[in-house]
Write a structure and sequence with these properties.
Order of helices and strands: HHHEHEHEHEHEHEHEHE
CATH architecture of one domain: Alpha-Beta Horseshoe
Distance between the termini: 41 Å
CATH class of one domain: Alpha Beta
Structural class: alpha/beta
Number of strands: 8
CATH superfamily of one domain: Ribonuclease Inhibitor
Oligomer: single chain
Shape: elongated
Length: about 325
């Protein structure tokens, strides 16, 4: 009687990326953004998931932007997750289009090594929240606050200067890119006294600045001259939209002599580095300057799941069930 033999089943070799040294895998993941890693890369294989958790160097620089696909509240949760994975090694974070008071404080409590902070169009974060957070960033060298619908204050500038003695680059802009057409705009009717006080606070508390951007400020020659005198290392100055300056020829001449990279009030916005929301906005009728009010509560908390940014989450937003938010029980269906 012929003997029967069981068929030989050949095992499928693992994909080549699973056998890469973890340092190389970490270098690959570092090229991706935080959202791509948390939503996609960690589901490629258990190795990538493990490396993303065990190598905080992947998370030293976090870039996150609202793509109008994910709910802002989910982006906030993912941002916190990325900060946790950095294990205190975060040095640079760039947030565009979302954020809350609690989120910026969460970052500050876990990121004492931070050197660069950029917030663009983050309407849920007030300037007061930023100032409170920055007291935990003694190594901060770059601060960029773009299109935040809130009031910048003298006390806040003073606190930032005291808390961040290494600050070299500072940027403020309170207008959306889509509206930055200065050709048909006249001079402001409102006085620039408050903006001059802010400029004087910059001069008195941030003498180490090399770069300063004040797009749309109402400062006058008084404030500008204070900056030129108080910031002797300044080599780059952006005054686009600052139509109250250069009423005195000597101040303009001083700028031209001192500043290597000078952008004048009516220069084009080409090359503006910070992204903006180009969608229609009924609240976009305010003038330039740092004096308009915000439609937020006293704590800048807008993390309610149904009213964040006034958006309707049943129309156009995607909140996938399989988004990976790290915990101790993450499991793969196929492993």
């Amino acid at each position: 009687m012929a003997s029967s033999s069981s068929p030989v089943i050949e095992s499928t070799p693992p994909p080549p990326w699973e056998s890469l040294p973890p340092e190389i895998t970490a270098a690959i993941l570092q090229k991706l953004g935080a959202v791509e890693i948390l939503m996609t890369a960690v589901k490629v294989c258990p190795t990538w998931w493990r490396v993303s958790k065990e190598y905080p160097s992947i998370w030293r620089c976090i870039n996150m932007q609202d793509s109008n696909v994910l709910r802002p509240v989910l982006l906030v949760k993912m941002c916190r997750c990325a900060v946790d994975l950095s294990q205190g090694q975060l040095t640079e974070i760039n947030i565009n289009g979302f954020g809350t008071h609690d989120m910026i404080l969460y970052i500050s409590e876990r990121s004492s090594q931070l050197k660069s902070l950029q917030l663009v169009n983050c309407r849920g974060i007030l300037f007061a929240s930023v100032v409170e957070a920055i007291t935990n960033f003694p190594l901060l060298e770059e601060l960029h606050l773009q299109q935040l619908d809130c009031m910048i204050t003298v006390n806040g500038i003073e606190t930032i200067g005291i808390s961040c003695p290494l600050l070299k680059s500072l940027s403020f802009c309170d207008r959306k890119k889509k509206s930055m057409n200065f050709n048909n705009l006249g001079f402001y009717d409102a006085p620039g006294i408050e903006c001059d006080k802010i400029a004087e606070a910059i001069a008195q508390n941030m003498p180490g600045l090399f770069q300063l951007q004040l797009i749309g400020s109402k400062l006058t020659d008084v404030g500008l001259k204070a900056i030129l005198c108080g910031c002797p290392n300044l080599v780059s100055l952006d005054l686009r939209g600052c139509f109250n300056v250069f009423t005195c020829a000597d101040v303009e001449q001083l700028c031209l002599e001192r500043i290597k990279d000078l952008k004048l009030p009516r220069d084009s916005m080409d090359g503006y580095d910070f992204g903006a929301d180009d969608s229609d906005d009924s609240d976009d009728d305010y003038g330039y300057g740092y004096g308009y009010d915000c439609d937020y509560d006293n704590h800048g908390r807008l993390d309610d799941d149904e009213h964040y940014f006034g958006r309707d989450y049943d129309d156009g937003y995607h909140d996938p069930d399989d988004v990976v938010i790290y915990d101790n029980e993450y499991a793969y269906e196929n492993y």
